[in-house]
Design goal:
Blueprint (H helix, E strand, L loop, with lengths): L2 E4 L4 E4 L9 E8 L8 H10 L12 E5 L8 H12 L6 E2 L12 E2 L4 H4 L19 H4 L10 E2 L19 E2 L1 E5 L8 H5 L5 E3 L6 E3 L9 H5 L5 E4 L4 E4 L4 H4 L16 H4 L6 E7 L13 H8 L4 E2 L10 E4 L6 H8 L3 H9 L3 H7 L11 E5 L3 E8 L5 E7 L2 E5 L5 E6 L16
Parallel strand pairs: 3-16
Antiparallel strand pairs: 1-2, 3-14, 4-9, 5-6, 7-8, 10-11, 12-13, 15-16, 17-20, 18-19, 20-21
Length: 430
């Protein structure tokens, strides 16, 4: 298999196909600290794409309660166990190994789903990617173990890069919103024997050609996030399409001049946890340096948003700001060794980061560039940091402006939320 560079692993890895970078890449950032599990995103997707016969158990978007919840049930723990079985004790990170823009989290020393598959010795023949097909029971309940908590987890001895971890909750859970990550190196694409799955060169969206799909479910087996799902009445697999008509600016009301818009699940978010965008990709596959793009800024510039299970090796383009109250070993397993840095950034955001965080769910058009206009100092508060120390945070009422693809203003918002007092003529006035 060819070698491709995976910046999330900090090294090259084996993949069935040579790298073929898209011009732009669909990507998103979710802030798990804000998610309230209202499932508005889930139902927005459901009412748009998966409301038909045969799609009863197809949820392109879902929100699950971690650590016990999952759709399909146990999707992540089962794959982690498989990888551990094929590389016992070797699924470790070396966070100190050559940190650089090409390796922001250090280097992953273990095996990806593609590399572990090389030693697969099952009875069903060779595999391109290590995986499994969930049972009908595992697909049956998208909200299983909702709001179930677990006691504080003790750090395993194998974790050698622990950081100070205060404050944490002894009893904890958090909500993890998920959809297809439109990976740079998709497991579903790699495994499809019909070559029915492809990655769009214009935006990196991964799609399934329904006219070529024969329903072998190799994509279901190989996707580590289980976001390719079999539809029984058509005999084909389906997955999130990233609402690509909106990305193309084809909504006549939201995009009167062809402005790219965010997906349905993003724009419907009540908790304002979601930001979706497009990042420019260089010819060598690297993210083009663009610190004024909010997605690039949060992921590459500040590293406050981290990939979900980067060790799987697909280079997912979905990123998460980790929850502050969860034990660090669990978060490191899920998001990699950048957790400590990300939580420290988020616990006491500086002036610029605080302004960018205000852009979440303020516009339906995709924000390609932001600008900050300085405002007066309005507060200074004491913040408890993850290591237990205190830090003074100065807050300024800056104005952050977001611009669309055509460099037109799409949103303008201040740090301090404005207060509007209704006139006394209204019955419910104060």
């Amino acid at each position: 298999m060819p070698d491709v560079h995976n910046w999330q692993l900090g090294r090259t890895m084996s993949y069935p196909f040579a790298a073929a970078p898209a011009k732009w890449q669909f990507a998103f950032v979710f802030n798990t600290n804000r998610c309230i599990n209202c499932q508005t995103c889930t139902m927005a997707c459901r009412s748009t794409w998966t409301f038909s016969k045969g799609q009863e158990n197809i949820w392109w978007n879902n929100v699950e309660t971690k650590p016990f919840g999952g759709y399909p049930q146990n999707w992540d723990s089962k794959l982690l166990a498989l990888l551990e079985e094929y590389n016992p004790g070797g699924q470790l990170w070396d966070p100190a190994a050559g940190k650089s823009p090409e390796a922001p989290y250090g280097r992953f020393e273990g095996k990806t789903i593609f590399e572990a598959a090389a030693s697969y010795a099952g009875t069903d023949g060779p595999k391109v990617a290590l995986g499994y097909i969930p049972t009908a029971e595992e697909w049956a309940a998208p909200n299983i173990f909702e709001d179930h908590a677990r006691p504080e987890a003790r750090p395993p001895s194998a974790v050698k890069h622990m950081v100070a971890a205060l404050p944490e909750h002894k009893v904890w859970f958090f909500y993890l919103a998920r959809l297809c990550n439109h990976c740079t190196y998709p497991g579903c694409l790699a495994a499809c024997p019909r070559q029915a799955i492809y990655k769009r060169p214009e935006d990196g969206v991964v799609l399934i050609d329904q006219s070529r799909c024969n329903g072998y479910q190799k994509c279901v087996e190989a996707c580590p996030y289980k976001k390719s799902i079999f539809r029984p009445n058509t005999g084909t697999s389906e997955k999130c399409v990233a609402c690509y008509p909106r990305l193309e600016g084809r909504d006549p009301e939201l995009s009167p001049n062809g402005e790219p818009c965010e997906t349905r699940c993003m724009t419907a978010c009540v908790g304002k946890i979601r930001m979706q965008g497009l990042v420019r990709i260089e010819e060598d596959g690297a993210w083009a340096k663009d610190p004024q793009n909010p997605i690039y800024y949060l992921v590459r510039e500040r590293q406050v948003a981290l990939p979900l299970y980067p060790q799987f090796g697909t280079e997912p383009n979905g990123f998460y700001i980790p929850p502050r109250w969860v034990p660090r070993p669990y978060l490191i397993q899920m998001f990699g060794p950048g957790v400590g840095h990300a939580i420290e950034q988020y616990s006491c955001p500086d002036r610029e980061l605080l302004a960018v965080l205000q852009l979440f769910r303020t516009a339906q058009q995709i924000i390609f560039r932001f600008e900050i206009q300085p405002g007066p100092k309005i507060a200074e508060i004491e913040v408890t940091m993850p290591d237990g120390s205190s830090r003074a945070q100065a807050i300024f009422n800056d104005t952050v402006i977001g611009y669309n693809k055509f460099d037109q203003e799409a949103v303008r918002i201040t740090i301090e939320e404005p207060i509007f007092e209704r006139p006394a003529i209204h019955a419910n006035s104060i």
